[in-house]
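Lab channel / #folding
Pinned by the channel admin:
"Please post every new chain as: sequence first, then the structure tokens as a reply. Keep commentary short and put observations after the output so the thread stays searchable."

First post following the new format, from NK:
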Amino acid sequence: MSAPRNALGAVLLTAAWVFFTTEMVLVRILSEDLSIPQIGVFRLGTQALLLLPLALIWPAWLLATRRFPLHAARTLCSSGGMVLFYLAFALLPLALATTLTFMTAAFVMILASLILGERIGPRRIAAVSIGFLGVLVAMRPGAGAIEPGMLIALAGAFVAALLMILTRQLSSTEGRLTIMAYSSGLGLVLMAVPALLTWAPLELRHLPMLGLVGLAGTSGQFLMVWAFQIAEASALAPVDYLRLIFAVLAGYAVFAEVPDLWTWAGAAIIVSSVAYATHRERLAHRHTRSPR
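Reply from TO:
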């Protein structure tokens, strides 16, 4: 794949992380007054509204599928992961929550072996083990009881990894807009009941922020999928670490948060393990493509 396509993919993914960071900042602010499922309904509703014109004009093109059960399973993971991440970012400092979500890559390796039958060599096993060590460091060993938000963030990372596996299976036959359409439509149905049970009165000041949550989340998802469609995953891996920089900057600018030593140390260990695993993946990919 050409360098220009990889460069464009890096730009798209960087923009996606900006949108996702904006989304999480707004969720943190809104969660002080509104419930997480309630915010989720507006997030999914915005995406559904943006795709509605396509569904009305070209319903067969957008909604035709023979893999509805897989769409339903992916929607369950997508909606569940969104709620878990929203909760984690509402309860934890942005930098710490972002650090713990880096474990998604390690969970993907494990699930790819269990579900897709991909082989995990000793080096990948070592990288995953080191990543979990980084999680323990970030969770402040010996500092007392573990905060619920930390466990919620790790659960969200696991669900996000399962979501990536299901998306990989779906993307072989389904377009990204079709996947997004089913995700938003089915997600709204799934989120409606918990949102109604926890509904809080809306104020006028909430509406612009809720709209921005929907736009930022939808834009980030679209750009991220687009980036991975046109660029090599190994070329985009270093861009993933920009999430932590954006989270640190946003946390300091908006909430006056300064990451402590444990967060920095855990992030360094996790990022190093993911970088090593990515490097081994790149070498293996080159080996399989090179002529004997």
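NK: The two ends are 21 Å apart (CA to CA).
TO: also worth noting, The chain has a mean pLDDT of 86.
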